[in-house]
């Protein structure tokens, strides 16, 4: 049944504010009224309280008048000096006008003042009006309107501070009264939720809202019937009446991904409004239980399929929470509910009129069908059998379609052997094109519950227009998005599974996700070119010993996902490979996630050119390949977060991985990292203790200043390491990144292409020189496959008898694209000792002959490079 319309305030008016507070500032602003405001705000009741010290005026301000008009309920706090304020009296008049005009509710509070004095203007109110009559002799009609307003307001049922004491109890009672009033007038959020209002009323009667007992209610019904929608509507409607609330959605599905204790911690954290870790030894369990028993809470557990899980999630059930608490549980299985809940509400199918209305809202965006589609609509509705999910999906599928399309859909429905909802839903799948069907099955089999952006990146490696296609699925009610997670109704996922199961024999199915099926195909080597994706939950899988060629023949495998649905990291390894590892993996892989990958490396012949995501958490990998050669993997989005544990990995080549967005923490063993041309890279999270021999980040346009600072920190770390461990470095070290500053550790630095320094007396003790330049190109089109920079150094003698020594140090740079305005190049050369020549003189004496040095930097190799590339800054550091 559609929601009924009404012109009354109570069903249609929703003010900007829930409550307006009228009070005399000098009486109660910093005492009673401030505490009342805090209590209302604590209950998330949006309250207007004017916190300005008002100046005297004839009338209330326009902002105050508007705030009154935009409030659902007004509270008038009458106090001893209230009537002395003409502003306050004007507020009472305005409040009562709104009460008459649109039914605004009014609650008077008589705070340390007799209601009779307010009603009859006696006591302090008499004195106040005597003053007003003296000052407003020419405006007595206004004074009389104030008197009438006070009398009317005082006759409204309210609260007396003399009767209800102390103030804390008075405030608690007032807030409770306001909550009940707002709750009663709150319209249900039922736009598009046809027939839900009558069902909400039935559930409310079962909940016995006035009872102080703890009550558990089960909401039971078939898949797609609207159990979760109904539970959410109830939750939204009554949650304001409880101290704490928690709605755990899709518990059954969540428990496939996490441990029950994690859900329990989430539940307790929301109820107690603090982070709870029940495994912490510091947690006082008894005190925790005592606190829970003192709270009136509302809890919804959505989609429970196991009574034991319910009892473990809420140990003690009725005894866990405080008086008046309510627990709602939705389930397809009545037997699960019978043993734990007090009442069971069965969600019935929509009647024909409700079903027709819901279908039309999705097929025509209005409550009734177009005149040419009346009979067709009735026929479609008959097949859906009052199931809301089927009605929404069918309606969304037929939205905007021609009469011929409708007739074709009806013909398919008529040919369905039985009218089970899954078979009815199949009509929406059949209306997709080939690419859309494949994407739908990918989501149903592998990516339900995953982050939408993450899934979009992965599937973009397989299909075009992925974002648009997912939006199409949403429009067709095949997929929904909640907190940016891709969600799919159980029945739709089961329909997708059924479609795949109807494909030929096991080894020729396009997608495998059942642990028994995966075990059979991999251990018996039944895989074929038909298999496009494999997903295995290792937490529920049996142990497998695979041969090296287990994946041979699966040339079209795009998705390989061996994952843990919970955090049982310490569990035994489930998949075993021979010592030589895997022989091959499909070069078509876009997504490779393998928890505890058992080998020390991936197959040597594996080509990663199509890879989008590589994730090997808690694995034994020592090297991805012989050097992680990922150059020009244009679809690669991320590296595994666990790569920092690959303790023997020494080099990674990522240049021109144009989709790579971030680098995780890298292993300390890493010496070479080249990431040139990674134009999408935004973050670089390295270990600052890393000591690179080759670190290159040219043309990574999206790295911001923070990330560049990370690279500079690595530069500092490398230089410091070279200072203390120079004997370990016999080869040149090179670091290249975008920037315009010489690192601070280069104490000798200057603008321009040349630099002169005084050599320290003990410079014979140094073992090498680090050079650094900032350079830029006047021609951004320059591309040099091999370029080099030269430093020409003159060591000058103390006297004329010794000749100056001229030395050249060269740094080669591969694949230099000069798109960036400024780049920083640092290199280290361990060649100072070579300056001594034949070594005939004592080492110290020889070095003491030279007291100063000058360094000149310039580009070499190609004429165009030499002409347009300019050195802007330079620096040197003796090590």
- Percent in strands: 15-25%
**Level of helix content?**
25-40%
In terms of structural class, how would the helical and strand content be classed?
alpha/beta
Reported for the largest beta sheet, the result is:
9 strands, mixed
What is the residue-averaged pLDDT?
82
Tally of helical runs: 29
Shape: globular
- What's the gyration radius in Å? 38 Å
If you had to describe this structure to a student in words, what would you say it looks like?
By secondary structure, this protein is an alpha/beta fold. It is built from 29 helices and 34 strands. It is globular. The model is unreliable at 1-12 and 53-58 (pLDDT under 50).
Map the helices and strands.
Blueprint: H1 9-12, E1 17-22, H2 25-28, H3 32-42, E2 47-48, H4 62-69, E3 71-78, H5 86-102, E4 105-110, H6 115-120, H7 124-135, H8 140-154, E5 159-160, H9 167-185, H10 196-207, E6 215-220, H11 227-238, E7 244-248, H12 251-254, H13 260-272, H14 285-293, E8 297-301, H15 307-313, E9 326-331, H16 334-338, E10 343-346, H17 352-363, H18 374-384, H19 388-398, H20 403-414, H21 421-430, H22 434-447, H23 452-460, H24 466-475, E11 480-482, E12 485-487, H25 490-501, E13 511-512, H26 515-523, E14 533-537, E15 544-545, E16 559-563, E17 575-576, E18 591-594, E19 613-615, E20 628-629, E21 651-653, E22 662-663, E23 672-674, E24 683-684, E25 694-697, H27 705-725, E26 733-738, E27 748-751, E28 754-758, E29 769-777, E30 783-797, E31 805-817, E32 823-829, H28 843-848, E33 850-860, H29 863-868, E34 869-878
